[in-house]
Specification:
The chain has a single domain, classed as Alpha-Beta Plaits (2-Layer Sandwich). It contains 8 helices and 12 strands. The chain has helices spanning about 10-15, 20-30, 55-60, 80-90, 130-135, 160-165, 200, 220-225, and strands at about 5, 30-35, 45-50, 70-75, 100-105, 115-120, 140, 150, 170-175, 180, 210, 245. The two termini are about 25 Å apart.
């Protein structure tokens, strides 16, 4: 899986181009701030830009029951990629695609730890731009649990949802020529009585916590609503109201 590694420089090269004002705003929406740039626009360093209120502002009501969510404790990720392997095996993900991946951030001037790993996946937003953009209603929110789903029989492979997604969380499956993405393992695990997604179950450090954010007794609820540590979401300005939250530890 190591050849699948995508770092932030690759992210720039793939879709953002040179670092201008628009690209800086894009990184800020991901909870990151560019602190240095080489001549020619190449990124030198990126640091976290945490808004402690951003997660709380996106929570609001819980319209689904159960209302599934995930918390990523970033500093616990060791880049073993067991999460990616477990997801690929459980959900039969094509080798050319992904339902989850781990981004790498390198801070050359940092004291001590210079590398940081950031797991990413579909954020199962409460206001998903992908659902609004789909011309055939192939992507939709499950009315009971709010998971953003794909109906491959309706998908025409137009990639409109891929362009609309603020998190680059979708890919075109070359086998079916339809879009695929994370669905919190609802068909492969949750509907079979399992309590965790494949990625959360496989993580050896507890970097991924999966659960029900509407349940005050659930670990996800307790992590998101505690005040001792900052909790944030990626790209809050997109207004998508994501259900994947981030914290340091």
């Amino acid at each position: 899986m190591k050849d699948k590694k995508i770092d932030f420089e690759s992210l720039i090269n793939e879709g953002l181009g040179s670092v201008g004002s628009i690209e800086r705003r894009t990184f800020l929406k991901m909870g990151l701030a560019i602190t240095g740039v080489f001549a020619g626009g190449k990124i030198l360093s990126v640091v976290s830009s945490i808004d402690k209120a951003s997660a709380q502002e996106t929570i609001g009501d819980y319209p689904y029951n159960p209302h599934y969510s995930m918390v990523i404790r970033q500093s616990l990720c060791i880049d073993c990629e067991r999460c990616v392997a477990a997801c690929t095996e459980t959900n039969h993900v094509d080798p050319s695609g992904y339902r989850t991946r781990v981004l790498e951030k390198i801070s050359p001037r940092a004291i001590g730890q210079k590398r940081e790993f950031i797991p990413v996946l579909c954020n199962h937003c409460n206001e998903p731009p992908c659902v609004r953009a789909c011309p055939t209603q192939a992507t939709y929110k499950d009315e009971k649990n709010g998971i953003v789903m794909m109906n491959s029989s309706k998908c025409i492979g137009c990639k409109t949802c891929m362009l609309a997604c603020p998190y680059n969380a979708r890919y075109l499956d070359p086998r079916s020529r339809t879009i695929d993405k994370c669905n919190f393992c609802v068909d492969t695990r949750l509907n079979k009585g399992e309590k965790l997604t494949a990625c959360a179950a496989a993580c050896p450090t507890g970097a991924r916590t999966f659960g029900i954010i509407s349940d005050p007794n659930d670990a996800v609820y307790k992590l998101v609503h505690q005040v001792e540590k900052a909790v944030w979401v990626l790209r809050p300005e997109a207004g998508a109201k994501p259900n994947v939250f981030y914290m340091k530890s």
